[in-house]
Write a structure and sequence with these properties.
This protein has about 425 residues and is mostly helical. About 75% of the residues lie in helices and about 0% in strands. The chain starts with 9 loop residues before the first helix and ends with a helix.
Length: about 425
C-alpha cells in the first residue's frame, strides 16, 4: 500500500474495519442513553460507511491502495446477493409496478441533462473552467463521469476511449465522481432508515412496498429456528458455491463475447463483473423456488447483510474529502449536476406519488451501480435488495448510450 498511509497492511485494515462494524452494531443495540440518542439521529449503516471514509481522509489508511474493496465487491457482494434473494417472493416484487422503472429512467435523463446544465452555469460564473486544449478539455472528462453515473466503471472506461480525456483530467474526474456520488449515497442511507418523512412529503403510495415487507417478515417468522453450526455452514457453503460458479461462468461468457462479439462491448456484456452480478442474483432467485429457501429460517439474509456491511465499509474507504480542495470548480460542477438529477427525480416522484424507496434505488442504480444499489435497497429492507440489483443491471445496458448523448451535449455546452 501507499507510503503515505499510517496503516499499510490490508490484514490490519480489514481488522480495523471489522472492529468498527462490531463496535457500531454493539453500541446500536445498547440501552445506554447516550447511544440511544446517537442512533435516534444517525443510522447504523451511515456510520459503517462514514467512519472508514474518515480513516482514508485523514491518512490512517489508503483506500486507493487497498485491495479490500476488490475482494468485497467480487467475493462478498455476489454471495450477499445470493443469500438476500434466497427467500425472495418474485411475484410480490413484480407487483411493485412500473414506478420503479419510471424513476430509474428519470434518474438517467436527469444525469444526461444535468451535466451540460451544470457546465453552462459554472462556466458563466467562472469562465476559466472552459480552459484546456485537446485531451484536457473539461467536457471530455465530464463525459466519463456520465458513463459512471448512468452505468458503471465499464461504461466510464468506454467514454474515456470515445472522447479521449487525458490521464490527468481523468484522474481528477474520478475524484469528483467518487466524492459527489458517495455524498449522495450517504444522504440516501440516512433517509433509508426513516423514509416516513420523505414519503409524506411526496404524498407517496407505499402500499405495495409495505405488503412485500410484511409478507417476507411473516414468512421469516414462520420458518424461524435457532441455527446450528451445520445450518450456518450450509448458508455460507451455498452462497460462496454459487459465487464460485458465477465467477467461472461469468468469466468464460465475458471472454467469449469479447472475442466473438466485440460489438456487444457497448452493453458491458464483455465485463466479468457484469455477468458475476447477473448470475449470482439469478442463482439466488432460482434457489428461492427450492427447499433451500428455508435456510432463511436460520439466518440466510442476516448472513447476507453481514457481508453487505463489509462492502459498505470498503466503499467508505474509497472516499477522500480532501480531494475537493484540488479542483473546487470541477466539484462545483459535480455538485450542481447531482442536484439537478435529484431535483428532477423528486419532481417526477411527487407527480406520480412514487415512494422515496423508488427515488433512492432509481438514483443509486444509475449513480452507484450494482455494487451499491443493493446496499441502499436493503437499508430500506433486506427483501428489497434484488430490486436495486435489477435496476442497476439495466443501468449497465443504457450507460454507454446515455453517457454518449450526455458527452455530445457537454461538448456543445463547452463550445458555447
Amino acid at each position: 500500500m501507499g507510503d503515505s498511509a499510517l496503516i499499510q497492511d490490508d490484514a490490519v485494515v480489514f481488522g480495523l474495519l471489522m472492529a468498527v462494524l462490531g463496535l457500531v452494531f454493539y453500541t446500536s443495540a445498547s440501552d445506554h442513553p447516550i447511544f440511544k440518542v446517537i442512533y435516534r439521529f444517525v443510522p447504523v449503516v451511515l456510520l459503517c460507511y462514514f467512519i472508514p471514509a474518515l480513516f482514508n481522509t485523514f491518512g490512517l489508511v489508503s483506500g486507493a491502495d487497498s485491495g479490500l474493496y476488490y475482494v468485497a465487491s467480487r467475493y462478498l457482494l455476489p454471495t450477499s446477493l445470493v443469500l438476500l434473494t434466497l427467500s425472495i417472493d418474485l411475484k410480490s416484487i413484480l407487483k411493485l409496478g412500473p414506478k420503479a422503472l419510471i424513476m430509474f429512467l428519470t434518474g438517467t435523463f436527469g444525469i444526461i441533462l444535468g451535466g451540460p446544465v451544470a457546465l453552462v452555469l459554472v462556466s458563466s460564473l467562472f469562465p476559466e473552467v472552459l480552459g484546456g486544449l485537446g485531451a484536457d478539455e473539461t467536457w471530455r472528462g465530464l463525459a466519463t463521469i456520465a458513463g459512471s453515473w448512468i452505468g458503471g466503471s465499464a461504461n466510464q472506461t468506454a467514454m474515456l476511449e470515445v472522447f479521449g480525456a487525458s490521464p490527468t483530467l481523468f484522474s481528477q474526474m474520478i475524484a469528483v465522481d467518487v466524492i459527489v456520488a458517495n455524498l449522495w449515497m450517504a444522504f440516501l442511507l440516512y433517509w433509508a432508515a426513516k423514509p416516513a418523512l420523505p414519503d409524506r412529503l411526496l404524498k407517496a403510495d407505499t402500499t405495495a412496498i409495505t405488503q412485500l415487507k410484511e409478507k417476507v417478515e411473516n414468512y421469516q417468522n414462520s420458518i424461524l429456528r435457532i441455527p446450528r453450526l451445520s445450518d450456518t455452514m450450509a448458508i455460507l457453503g451455498l452462497g460462496f458455491a454459487v459465487t464460485g460458479i458465477s465467477h467461472f461462468l461469468g468469466g468464460n461468457m465475458a471472454a467469449f463475447i469479447s472475442e466473438n462479439y466485440p460489438s456487444l462491448k457497448q452493453y458491458s456484456l464483455d465485463s466479468p463483473f457484469f455477468w458475476l452480478v447477473i448470475l449470482a442474483t439469478t442463482g439466488g432467485l432460482l434457489l428461492s423456488f427450492t427447499r433451500w429457501r428455508k435456510l432463511e429460517g436460520v439466518g440466510a439474509s442476516r448472513m447476507g447483510s453481514v457481508l453487505l456491511y463489509v462492502l459498505v465499509a470498503t466503499i467508505g474507504l474509497q472516499m477522500d474529502l480532501r480531494a475537493v480542495l484540488d479542483n473546487p470548480l470541477f466539484f462545483l460542477i459535480g455538485l450542481i449536476w447531482m442536484a439537478f438529477h435529484i431535483f428532477f427525480m423528486l419532481l417526477v416522484a411527487f407527480l406520480i406519488r412514487a415512494p422515496f424507496f423508488y427515488v433512492a434505488i432509481g438514483s443509486q442504480a444509475n449513480v452507484g451501480g450494482a455494487a451499491s444499489a443493493p446496499i441502499v435497497a436493503s437499508a430500506f429492507h433486506p427483501a428489497l435488495a434484488p430490486v436495486g440489483v435489477l435496476l442497476a443491471v439495466l443501468g449497465y445496458a443504457l450507460g454507454t448510450y446515455g453517457a454518449y448523448i450526455c458527452g455530445l451535449l457537454l461538448q456543445l455546452a463547452f463550445g458555447n
